[in-house]
């Protein structure tokens, strides 16, 4: 039984195959429109999410399958105190595959230990969000044509931003990757990522608080929102939330082929006047998210189309 | 000066971080043995300033590797006939269950009490253990 709990659960070869399949589905969606007929996806969402849940549901519907599930803990038996293990044991009878989002870190791993169907981690607190990482990789690969030799800038909340941590771990697998880490001092990338991943692999990186200085060097700019829900102290959130705002003027400093990614939802960190810039690909990115989830569902269910 | 007699057959655990001897007493379940146990707290140490020591008379059959998880710098001396017969090196187990607790309030173990607390060794050189669920680093005292 294969699950996707961490972005690194897929070997580089498996990842490459998955991205190839996603690109193939993107170019010929009608070929795959019935391949999951009769299969059911359970979306077990213990905390609110718009994009991720609907993206999973759209992916399964696009493959001809059907979906069931819940979209908050209040509307599930978790409100009565049922454990994740018991919930997934029962869901294994109702569905063929499940996507789980949970506010507590490690909950999808617990589910995978007790499930008899594949479990996909759709986000567990500030920990992992592997399908966002797959979305990011597919976006970069599709629009840049390659994943190696890129200078990737991360900007905003690099401390609590799980999408940032996951993408760093995924990108270090590709040769000649460089990182520019742009954040206020309070929201820098955690030390363990530098000490246990970047330093041992000799990955070049620089840390800065200046977005304008960093912009001309970047092939990819990955903007992130300062997430209110990750702060225990609201004062800190208010002080830090608008530190970096990418606008049309700053975009003039960037390379002509730089891509701006954002996991969405965007709040203030990207001005709406950037949306029309061809380098702003965050809405395309959300579209790629559906295709990569289609490829993932097919892969975990062992479904192939000739 | 406090004098505690030498032991003939048993174990001396030295270089325990001051204040942690009772934790080790509980981890090794020394309260359940019939052995004679001496706990020396805040002994003078040239290297550590102060340290704890545990002396156990009459029993040597412990799972010492657990101690490496809690404090990899502890030294273990096996005593036979009143002399040090062996200096035991602590091995770091790859995985431990219910030896140490995850203290991350965001971890699933914080709300599902029946889950075993499982940690894996992620950096042998620095004796780093991380929670298998949330990957939070275990912080020693």
Structure commentary:
The complex is a heterodimer of chains A (306) and B (141). Chain A is α/β, with parallel strands linked by helices and 306 residues long. Chain A folds into two domains: 7-128 and 288-301, Aspartate/ornithine carbamoyltransferase (Rossmann fold, 3-Layer(aba) Sandwich), CATH 3.40.50.1370; 131-285, Rossmann fold, CATH 3.40.50. Chain A is 38% helix and 14% strand. Chain A has eleven helices and nine strands. Chain A has helices at 12-27, 51-62, 84-94, 107-114, 130-144, 162-171, 191-198, 211-214, 234-240, 248-251, 282-301; strands at residues 40-45, 66-70, 97-102, 119-124, 151-155, 178-182, 205-208, 220-223, 259-261. In chain A, the strands form two sheets. In chain A, strands 7-6-5-8-9 form a five-stranded parallel beta sheet, with helices on one face. A four-stranded parallel beta sheet of chain A has the order 2-1-3-4, sandwiched between helices. In chain A, helix 1 crosses helix 5 (130-144), helix 3 packs across helix 4 (107-114) and helix 5 (130-144) packs across helix 6 (162-171). Chain A is globular. The mean pLDDT of chain A is 93. With 141 residues, chain B is mainly beta. Chain B folds into two domains: 10-88, Aspartate carbamoyltransferase regulatory subunit, N-terminal domain (Alpha-Beta Plaits), CATH 3.30.70.140; 95-131, no CATH class. In chain B, 9% of the residues lie in helices and 37% in strands. Chain B has helices spanning 21-27, 65-70; strands at 10-17, 36-45, 49-57, 75-80, 83-88, 95-97, 118-123, 128-131. Chain B has a five-stranded antiparallel beta sheet, covered by helices on one side. Chain B has a three-stranded antiparallel beta sheet with strand order 6-7-8, with no helix packed on it. The two termini of chain B are 27 Å apart. In chain B, 26% of the residues are buried. Chain A binds chain B through residues 83-85, 102-107, 109-110, 124-127, 192, 196, and chain B through 104, 106-112, 114-115, 122-123, 128, 131-137.
């Amino acid at each position: 039984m294969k699950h996707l709990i961490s972005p690194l659960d897929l070997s580089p070869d498996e990842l490459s195959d998955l991205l190839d399949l996603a690109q193939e589905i993107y170019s010929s969606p009608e070929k795959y429109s019935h391949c999951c007929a009769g299969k059911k996806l359970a979306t077990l969402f213990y905390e609110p999410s718009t994009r991720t849940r609907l993206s999973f549901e759209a992916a399964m519907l696009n493959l001809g399958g059907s979906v069931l599930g819940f979209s908050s803990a209040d509307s599930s038996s978790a409100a009565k105190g049922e454990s994740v293990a018991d919930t997934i044991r029962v869901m294994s009878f109702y569905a063929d595959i499940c996507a789980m989002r949970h506010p507590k870190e490690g909950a999808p791993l617990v589910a995978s230990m007790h499930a008899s169907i594949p479990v996909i981690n759709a986000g567990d607190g500030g920990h992992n969000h592997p399908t966002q990482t797959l979305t990011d990789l597919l976006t970069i690969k599709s629009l840049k044509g390659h994943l190696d030799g890129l200078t990737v800038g991360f900007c905003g909340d690099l401390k609590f931003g799980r999408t940032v941590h996951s993408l760093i771990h995924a990108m270090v697998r590709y040769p000649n990757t460089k990182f520019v880490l742009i954040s206020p001092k309070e929201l820098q990338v955690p030390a363990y990522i530098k000490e246990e991943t970047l330093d041992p692999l000799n990955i070049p990186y620089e840390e800065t608080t200046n977005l304008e200085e960093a912009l001309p060097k970047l092939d990819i700019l990955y903007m992130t929102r300062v997430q209110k829900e990750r702060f225990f102290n609201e004062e800190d959130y208010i002080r830090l939330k608008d530190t970096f705002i990418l606008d049309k003027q700053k975009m003039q400093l960037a390379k002509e082929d730089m891509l701006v990614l954002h996991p969405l939802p965007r709040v203030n960190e990207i001005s709406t006047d950037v949306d029309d810039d061809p380098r702003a690909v965050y809405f395309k990115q959300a579209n790629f998210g559906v295709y990569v989830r289609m490829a993932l569902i097919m892969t975990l269910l062992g479904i192939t189309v000739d | 000066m406090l004098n505690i007699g030498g032991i003939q057959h048993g174990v001396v655990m030295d270089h325990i971080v001051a204040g942690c001897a009772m934790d080790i007493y509980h981890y090794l379940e020394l309260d359940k043995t019939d052995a004679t146990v001496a706990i020396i707290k805040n002994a003078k140490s040239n290297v550590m300033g102060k340290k704890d020591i545990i002396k156990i008379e009459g029993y040597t059959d412990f799972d010492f590797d657990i101690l490496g998880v809690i404090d990899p710098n502890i030294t273990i001396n096996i005593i036979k006939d009143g002399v040090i017969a062996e200096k035991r090196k602590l091995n770091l187990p790859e995985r431990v269950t219910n030896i140490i607790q995850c203290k991350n309030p965001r971890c699933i173990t914080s709300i599902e009490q029946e889950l075993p607390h499982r940690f894996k060794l992620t950096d042998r050189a620095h004796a780093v253990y991380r929670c298998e669920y949330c990957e939070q680093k275990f912080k020693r005292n």
